[in-house]
Design goal:
alpha/beta; 9 helices; about 220 residues; about 20% strand; 10 strands
């Protein structure tokens, strides 16, 4: 085990059974003209973490540890998207409508792709999820069990919605979860801050929180 300095206490990373989960770093949330932009959000806040997420992914690739990417994506006929979700938020464009990068949050459309700087490489798992959480209607739990994963390190967007939902789902399934706090972001600074506090509260009720430097430093000490 590798102890990673974290809150509320060191995270016990198991190198043989750990995977990285990168949540929804897709153009529809991060670039102008996408779904996040249609809701009136400042997408530059999310774009700013791309270099840190890239650095985190590189850590896992160098170690040979599994990397999992998720995309919030719906079928072209929207049969997996409840009408209440389509109607939510008073956006200028709704899910499934045509924006600057194709139909919003629809699988296969340009805007639904992961940003180029974080693109998956051969062998990495890509999960299209119709909900906010990574486990709903995806089969990812069975995939993780098949490769012996017990520990999950999280990054991505947005902190309080898809990242937190996925961490809570993972926690309920027995995974030991660490959030890399500078590799996640929200359109609202106060929402990110509150979510990080909730995750680590009460002795790590959902999981642990640490910066990327803490993970990098612990791995460097192990290698020395």
């Amino acid at each position: 085990m590798i102890d990673i300095p974290a809150r509320p206490y060191p995270y016990p990373l198991d190198p043989a059974h750990t995977a990285l989960v990168v949540i929804d770093m897709q153009r529809d949330f991060i670039e102008p003209g996408g779904f996040g932009d249609s809701l009136g959000n400042d997408v530059a806040r999310l774009e700013a973490i791309v270099p840190t997420v890239a650095g985190l992914i590189e850590v896992f690739r160098q170690q040979g540890w599994p990397v999992i990417h998720t995309r919030e994506a719906h079928k072209p006929d929207l049969s997996d998207c409840p009408p209440s979700k389509i109607a939510r938020g008073n956006p200028s464009l709704h899910i499934g409508e045509v924006g600057a990068m194709g139909r919003l949050l629809v699988a296969g459309e340009p805007g639904n792709q992961i940003v180029a700087a974080l693109a998956p490489i051969e062998g990495e798992i890509v999960i299209d999820k119709p909900g906010k959480g990574m486990f709903w209607a995806t089969g990812v739990h069975e995939t993780l069990q098949a490769i012996g994963i017990t520990h999950l390190v999280f990054a991505g967007v947005t902190t309080e919605v898809c990242v937190q939902t996925s961490m809570r789902e993972a926690n309920d399934r027995g995974y030991e979860c660490l959030l890399i706090e500078d590799a996640t972001e929200s359109y609202f600074a106060q929402f990110k801050a509150a979510t990080i506090e909730m995750i680590a509260a009460q002795g790590g009720i959902v999981g642990w929180v640490a910066p990327l430097a803490a993970l990098q430093g612990a791995l460097a000490r192990r290698a020395a």
